[in-house]
Amino acid sequence: MTAEQIDRLGAAVAALLPGVERRAPCPLEEANLPLPTLEPPPSIAPLCSTDRRARSSHAYGRSYRDVVRGHRGDFAAAPAVVAYARSEADVAAVLEWCAATGTSVVPFGGGTSVVGGVECPGAVSLDLTGLNRVVDVDRASRAARIQAGAYGPGIEDGLRPHGLTLRHFPQSFECSTLGGWLATRSGGHYATVYTHIDDLVESIRAVTPSGVWESRRLPGSGAGPSPDRMLLGSEGILGVITEAWVRVQDRVRWKASAGVHFATFEQGALAVRALSQSALFPANCRLLDPGEAATSAGISDGSALLVVGFESADHPVDAVMARAVELAADHGGHLPEGVSTSGPQQDAGSKTSADTPSEASDAAGRWRASFLRAPYVRDGLVQLGVLTDTFETAVTWDRFPALHTGVREALRRASKEVCGGGVVTCRFTHVYPDGPAPYFTVMAPARRGGELEQWAEIKAAASEAVLSLGGTITHHHAVGRDHRPWYDRERPEPFASLLSAGKRALDPGNILNPGVLISA
Amino acid sequence: MTAEQIDRLGAAVAALLPGVERRAPCPLEEANLPLPTLEPPPSIAPLCSTDRRARSSHAYGRSYRDVVRGHRGDFAAAPAVVAYARSEADVAAVLEWCAATGTSVVPFGGGTSVVGGVECPGAVSLDLTGLNRVVDVDRASRAARIQAGAYGPGIEDGLRPHGLTLRHFPQSFECSTLGGWLATRSGGHYATVYTHIDDLVESIRAVTPSGVWESRRLPGSGAGPSPDRMLLGSEGILGVITEAWVRVQDRVRWKASAGVHFATFEQGALAVRALSQSALFPANCRLLDPGEAATSAGISDGSALLVVGFESADHPVDAVMARAVELAADHGGHLPEGVSTSGPQQDAGSKTSADTPSEASDAAGRWRASFLRAPYVRDGLVQLGVLTDTFETAVTWDRFPALHTGVREALRRASKEVCGGGVVTCRFTHVYPDGPAPYFTVMAPARRGGELEQWAEIKAAASEAVLSLGGTITHHHAVGRDHRPWYDRERPEPFASLLSAGKRALDPGNILNPGVLISA
Asked: What is the pTM (predicted TM-score) of this model?
């Protein structure tokens, strides 16, 4: 964002949070960056960089905490070396050196972690974005072999000529990679059925300090516990994912979307529950509370907004949309802007609106535009001195009302105590037949210089509330280092023992992303 | 089956396999059963039995090999003790004794393993069928807490008063238990979308020698690798599953089914591929080759038969069925008996035909009746001296034609060499967008007394062909002891190291179902 854009954002935010003011970030040349402490051997030296730009850009992810530190020019947690792998052999060579020297190594894709997943001071940051090809396409099985460092848009570019799409659109789509999605169990954009990257995987290949881990490419199997499901969510502690066979789809030809208004968020939640249990499988089913509906979709009458959409590559979706609207109406929903439909689109090989989830000019469309802008707005908010973060979870329907109330209250109370006030909103990002994935956003006036401590207090308050009210510490942001205390309480203790023992077997030197998920 | 029924079966089979003749099984009182070698301590003695009936009925599963040995009165592999747990405390007490004495212990549910999953000579067989209650129902989230030893019909009986169903119908439904389904990643009856029990799990509770393993009840999570996915398919080597929260559904109200004929199995396979990639999500999508269509569904014109069906609790399914028929017709399918539909059914709380997948009187209905009878027919075939087994796998569409040809040829060649001839048929039991799950059946004239050696040769030939042609050694029958050699070659070696290390951490005495999945 330009300074001018940030000032405009500041004027808009001032209505909610008075007194915000832009401060320019510390220039990189003035930033605090420890001297590199490692010297790679000649065999891998050509892959490695120790310059300030490389190391500072691999120091952090994209959390509020990360952006604040970058803004301050605080790169104390920078890696000692960035190794840019161009092949799997490079990955193996870097791991070999790290194992031999006992050096920590952190796989780095797009660097969009918001949970401290890539932060490891003095380590080797292993940049995978040189492994960025769509290697094979199997049209009959609708599957593709893709390298782990490929970014979202590159994946779609590689599949488009085949009339195919991975159809996995996390909010970080443009800046994140397949390997990162797999290592963190990315949630994707779609609200129901096959939304998590977990369900799109045929096989995964990874390099571990004990050799290559590659599962057989299969549409389904019952042969023991799934090896893929152990790498999914492993966050770089078991091995470095180098490529995967993933399930791809024909490009969407029919679409319908609608914005349904509800008097309250609670009423909308009942409609979403009915929809999630209908087996209609909407592609989109996002419920915004009145606060989010106002700021993200321009709804000015205090309604909650349900953005519901259907898509198909094979058949019209009018009938399922009609039934969804009927279910919503049964729960008090109304559609001031009606249903917008499109299709069939024939040019499946060219770049069309089917590339991305929805493109309406109505409330649903405005929400989408706002959704895609959100990650970029965060930088501006930090410059303005606004503390902002998101807390996401999933919970069963029976526990949802108490969790919703409890987490909002915890966030409001903490914002007031820590920052003197703040704004809290909530939406559903994904829904399941047995419960929603609520996503809370907080914005509060930060104290310059005290942002990290303020953030830590608010984060702890939200996390305690989520855990005590039956949610998971993370639905799709992963664990990293930030969620560790609550993750440790959430997971079954024997599973932690199994994971620790398994990691020791594969990574006896504990070089792989130490501190994430388990302790040595 | 009565002797008379078996003789009628023999007359029918004689057309394919001349010379079959019934021999009565060895009576239990004459069977060879080792003397019990263990004496349980007084604390658990009341749970335990060492009598012949208890031990012989827990010696084996239901594979051909098992039925042959039972028929011969060979119970050499019987457990020393059967412990009947009535509570989780009983499970913990039995494990404690086994750990203290270094005694192997095998969790036993319905005992329907067809892969040697419950066979452990001299061990303690821990019978879980006393833990058989539907404990809690959460109507809002459509979830239920069910004990591991509950059989399929008992589960449905417990859910029916709430208008709910688990809708998980493996072929062994009547004789198998929730815990067994979870431990072996049961496939269920439904052909697409949520068919594996894996996808129906909210949380699992298990007792390990190192304490209780219980995951948080959640609709979805991204917090590290899924603990549930490690217990799913663990086949009793990590812990004894005692209960689970599972996702249940509203009872089906609308149905449509049809039998589509194709000139060849290959042509039918192309139609099934199109259907599996359409996102129409049929509840049933089984393709029978001409041999199966003739014996299981009375199709006499040499056609392959596709049994396709749709079901919904929420909305009519005519439109999706019409589109499926259109797709099938595009690939040369025709429907001599048309589409049969039913619904809406209103009495969701009473026992209706919606309890089970389909009840038509047409080809689809005949296939279903045959499908449910199959497990019982096997006993009769063994008495008649017919070697019979099934080999199931899953493979991507690009590899399917070669696998289909190769496995059939391997089975025909092996049957001819080993038994002098035999009949080989194939069907799809499940289909995924990226590939089918083919299921091969072989019937051949056995040599009395040589059945086990003959079976081993045929099993090895089929398994080698499956593995070398890109399939999995098991799609839904699990690994047990019979699939071990091929499972070891299929799984990633680093995953085997992780699993071994994890098991050692939880079960340092290696008492839990030793020999299954990994070696000590």
From this structure: 0.95
